[in-house]
Design brief:
The complex is a heterodimer of chains A (about 450) and B (about 280). With about 450 residues, chain A is α/β, with parallel strands linked by helices. Chain A has 18 helices and 15 strands. The longest helix of chain A is centred in the middle third of the chain and has 24 residues. Chain A is globular. With about 280 residues, chain B is α/β, with parallel strands linked by helices.
């Protein structure tokens, strides 16, 4: 197993993994005609695989087999398409953001409106697909992990719709800070289990979900919320999110008559990004940007910029970039955005970073919150704080594009698409606390003060 | 059963784990294997407890590397490893633990570890240091042979044991490939679940052991859920070894090294002088 990052501990001011990539590798890759689309796993370059207890391998095999057959079954694909259209509300809109674009160097900016889906984010694409897969396997129970509660709420929603029992694992601290999301899941009929083990964060919620799965695998499907984990999860979760990129490609061609110059998405585990990127992977002239959570700044150590500063390791079933210490112990990540606050990243992103097909850069909390405000005030759209990282990245990319125009070119000739992965209603208390909009001693003020991962 | 395979086959050459199990078999009993996480509550205590286990009837000692994300472990072991880590345990200390136990006893010492700490150090460096410390090999709960090419190569070269897990859910094909990839013994998971004491070890365990023997395994040891000498006796009747973990960790937590010695003695009464124990 070759380690691409022997120069470990790349702390400090490293601008991004793209810089660390041998440029020869990237050029060699770009000159090839091989398609990057529909990569089936289990491996993406040297990433991915199944670093899992043997007890779960049979379940992963069953899942893979069921998924492969389902993909080839017109009845299944019709079911997914029907739920996407008549339940989730797809296709989601592609909205040109003209006033926001003024903050992006004057290039044209289009927003893929995953925030308009049922439950308010891209998460619904994956949970509907996996819940259908669970039914096909004859499972009666789904379990899920959640950080802030978005994937938990989406899972509870899909479970309610399809008549499945649903148990959601959530860090004990998060259950307190996200009491409303806990209530949402409960209203939808799910059981929420506070996780008090380890660091009591999202990664520990995944650990407890895996422990549940080992013990109950006969009746239970683990509805993993991101494009990470053991094979077939990364390629399966991507499959259910590919609809984002497919719709976007068609919509941008229709609205601008050409492909975009750049596509931007935020990356925690990386599910919305991989779904969006997939539509453009083989369009080599379209630059792909993933924006990671830079937290307080990557130089502070308090961040979740896994690709930027992590190094390859195995966690939760996949080999990928990982925030880990000298001993291989997983480090705690930090971000104002709970949805990006994860010390790992999906293996396909690790591969796309190494071959130079996608670029990954950190965005600090402050940059994200600035972009959050800008979008609210220029477009009348309150984005999820996760999404605000993609917006902040788009502002940078737009300015770079505008500064690098060929003679005779206008900034408005350049086009950026941003995946607006979720709406910000869930983040109002965090944002109000951050911008000091709450009256002292209000209940919301108390919540906002309790922690960064509101 | 597979008595023709029960002598030391080609896979057993130089295997310390195999030698320890065969020695027990020669005494007409199943081998007893005890687990403790290293550094709980500190390195010296682990060494002392390991020596105490070896002097009180344990044939093999399994020391675990505390890890931030132990998905196969239940509450008791999780809490112990969290404490070990917060007490400052570092991965390199595992070699001092192994050396400390092997210097004072004849017991074979295996390291139980999740894979990322090994990968972080580098498989070869880890293996070389383990061998230098006198370790017998590794038990790898989240590494399947499919992902283990580097470890297969290095362990073969250094003569270290590779203990992979098999479970009630393991398919016949995977059973064959896992048995083939293992060296020393095969770890049969008794139940679908994580570590932790259980009042009874299910019938699934016997079926897993039978399937592993059927697939050609010369030595199959059962772990997960075993906490009493009665269970040791029951499992020792069909398995080549019995692995106890959580009960020993709880004993150490509640009563220190002395309690570990007492429990080891107690548990070994489940194998000693048992006329039906082990394979003929």
């Amino acid at each position: 197993m070759t380690d691409m990052h022997q120069d470990t501990d790349r702390q400090g001011t490293d601008d991004g993994a793209a810089d660390a990539i041998d440029s020869g590798t990237a050029e060699a890759f770009l000159s090839h005609d091989e398609s990057l689309r529909h990569a089936p796993g289990p491996y993406f370059g040297s990433y991915g695989g199944r670093w899992m207890p043997e007890s779960l391998i049979a379940a992963l095999d069953e899942l893979q087999d069921t998924f492969e057959k389902a993909k080839a079954d017109p009845e299944f694909t019709a079911q997914v398409a029907d739920l996407n259209k008549n339940y989730a509300g797809r296709p989601s809109l592609l909205t040109e953001a003209q006033r926001f674009a003024e903050h992006c160097g004057g290039v044209r900016v289009f927003l893929k409106r995953e925030d308009l889906n049922h439950t308010g984010s891209h998460k619904i694409n994956n949970v509907l697909g996996q819940a259908l897969i669970a039914k096909r396997m004859g499972k009666t129970r789904v379990i899920a992990e959640t950080g802030a509660g978005q994937h938990g709420v989406a899972s509870a929603t899909a479970a309610a719709l399809l008549g499945l029992e649903c148990v959601v694992y959530m860090g004990a601290e998060d259950t307190r800070r996200q009491a409303l999301n806990v209530a949402r899941m409960q209203l939808l009929g799910a059981t929420v289990v506070p996780v008090t083990t380890g660091s009591q964060t999202l990664k520990d919620a995944i650990n407890d979900a895996l422990r549940d799965w080992v013990a109950n695998v006969e009746t239970t499907h683990y509805l993993l919320g991101t494009a990470a984990g053991a094979h077939p999860f990364p390629s399966m979760v991507r499959y259910f999110h590919e609809v984002i990129g497919e719709e976007t490609r068609e919509q941008i061609l229709e609205q601008t008559g050409k492909l975009p110059d750049a596509v931007c998405a935020c990356v925690g585990g990386g599910s919305n990004a991989i779904g969006m990127f997939h539509g453009f992977l083989d369009d080599r002239d379209v630059a792909l940007y993933g924006f990671e959570a830079g937290g307080d700044g990557v130089e502070t150590g308090r961040h979740a910029a896994t690709i930027t500063l992590g190094r390859p390791g195995v966690l939760h079933g996949a080999r990928s970039y990982l925030m880990q210490d000298q001993d291989g112990q997983t480090m705690e990540s930090h971000s104002i955005s709970a949805g990006l606050d994860y010390p790992g990243v999906g293996p396909e992103h690790a591969y796309l970073a190494d071959i130079g097909r996608a670029m990954y850069e950190p965005i600090t909390d402050a940059e994200a919150m600035d972009a959050f405000t800008v979008l609210c005030r220029t477009e009348g759209i309150i984005p999820a704080i996760e999404t605000a990282h993609a917006l902040a990245g788009a502002m940078k990319v737009g300015r770079r594009l505008a500064a690098d125009l060929a003679p005779g070119e206008q900034a408005a000739d350049r086009v950026i698409v941003v995946n607006l992965s979720g709406r910000g209603d869930k983040d109002v208390a965090t944002a109000a606390g951050y911008f000091d909009l709450l009256p002292d001693e209000s209940a919301e003020q108390e919540i906002a003060e309790e922690g960064e991962q509101l | 059963m597979t008595s023709t395979l029960q002598s030391s086959g080609p896979g057993a050459t130089g295997s310390r784990a195999a030698a320890a199990i065969e020695k027990a078999r020669g005494e007409g009993r199943a081998a007893l294997i005890g687990y403790l996480p290293a550094g709980f509550p500190d390195v010296q205590t682990t060494i002392d407890a390991g020596i105490a286990m070896a002097r009180n009837g344990m044939d093999l000692i399994e020391v675990g590397i505390p890890y931030s994300d132990p998905v196969m472990d239940g509450r008791v072991i999780q809490e112990a490893t969290v404490e070990a880590l917060s007490n400052g345990f570092t991965v390199s200390q595992i070699f001092a633990v192994v050396e400390g136990i092997t210097r004072s006893t004849d017991a074979a010492v295996l390291v139980m570890t999740y894979w990322n700490p090994v990968m972080r150090m580098g498989v070869r460096e880890f293996a070389e240091r383990l061998a230098a410390a006198g370790g017998a090999g590794l038990i790898t709960p989240d590494l399947i042979p499919d992902e283990a090419s580097e470890w297969l190569e290095v362990s073969e070269e250094l003569g270290l044991d590779r203990v992979f897990l098999v479970a009630p859910s393991t398919s016949p094909e995977r059973m064959r490939s896992t048995v083939e990839a293992s060296r020393g013994f095969v770890y049969a998971v008794s139940v679908m679940g994580v570590t932790g004491a259980r009042s009874s070890v299910g019938a699934a365990a016997e079926a897993v052991v039978a399937a592993a023997h059927e697939a050609g395994a010369e030595r199959v040891c059962v772990g997960l859920g075993v906490s009493t000498s009665a269970q040791v006796r029951q499992i020792g009747a069909y398995a080549d070894g019995v692995i106890v973990g959580t009960a020993l960790v709880a004993a150490l937590r509640d009563g220190g090294v002395e309690a570990v010695a007492d429990l080891s003695r107690e548990l070994s009464s489940g194998t000693a002088q048992d006329p039906v124990g082990g394979h003929p």
